[in-house]
Write a structure and sequence with these properties.
This protein is of the alpha/beta class. The chain is built from eight helices and 14 strands. It has a five-stranded parallel beta sheet with strand order 4-3-5-6-7, sandwiched between helices.
Length: 244
């Protein structure tokens, strides 16, 4: 089993050709990746409403929702940085430019070799992991988030958080002012452990709010109903927990 940060690596595969889909699925699973495979763009989009992945392999010409449109959906989610490989029969330079401008990180022109695909997957996962090696401290407003200490330092005094509460706060602060979806928080903090429920995120966010009040900082974790959360640095009207 392939692991990233101690968790199984999950790959979203979207390919409508049954034989090619089966081949790619077999190649990836043989390397220990967990694969969620779809033949239809809309089915893949629906899957992403409830789950997430560490990397996506998309085909351009899939029914329901074309691969480039699905990529736009992925890139529109709270500054999502999921690495994406596009596989396509379109080899024209203009088509490749379109794919990369739409937000793809890499592309493969069909047909391609098994070892080439696996090498591209490993390279993107390494690049993604390296880009997400967070700094040890982050300045947020007039406060500091201290990652090793799992603490918010306000007015020189550290206020410690539980591990998951701090990881949630850190991720929200990284996307300050933007709505971060529950799915993304679950992927970052829990790695999409199948035993984790959406309400677990809400419970830990409630604890983050309590910790912020205890620290005496005028930060607010706002609820975006049915979607996720946004961190702002100014006190707002209290959001009902039921909206979480």
């Amino acid at each position: 089993m392939q692991l990233m940060a101690g968790k199984p690596v999950r790959i979203l595969l979207v390919e409508d050709d049954v034989a090619h889909h089966a081949l790619l699925n077999a190649w990836l699973k043989a390397e220990g990746y967990q694969v969620s495979g779809f033949h239809h763009g809309l089915a893949a989009q629906q899957h992403l409403n409830d789950a997430w992945a560490d990397l996506a392999i998309l085909d351009w010409d899939v029914p329901g929702l074309a691969g480039d449109k699905l990529l736009q959906k992925i890139r529109g989610r709270a500054q999502s940085t999921m690495p994406v490989i596009f596989q396509t029969v379109h080899a024209d330079e203009s088509d490749i430019v379109h794919i990369l401008d739409a937000g793809a990180d890499d592309y493969l022109v069909k047909p391609f070799d098994r070892q080439v695909l696996l090498a591209r997957v490993r390279a993107l996962l390494r690049r993604f992991a390296a880009s997400h090696v967070q700094s040890q401290r982050m300045m947020v407003g007039e406060c500091v988030l201290d990652r090793p200490a799992r603490a918010l330092v306000a007015n020189g005094a550290p206020h410690r958080f539980g591990t998951k509460e701090f990881d949630i706060l850190w991720h929200l602060a990284t996307h300050l002012g933007a709505v971060v979806q529950r799915q993304d928080l679950m992927s970052v903090v829990w790695g999409w452990d199948s035993g984790v429920q959406s309400r677990s995120v809400d419970m830990y966010v409630s604890r983050v709010r309590s910790n912020l009040r205890a620290a005496g900082v005028a930060w607010t974790v706002q609820s975006a109903y049915g979607t996720g959360y946004r961190l702002t640095l100014e006190a707002q009207a209290a959001q009902p927990e039921a909206d979480a």
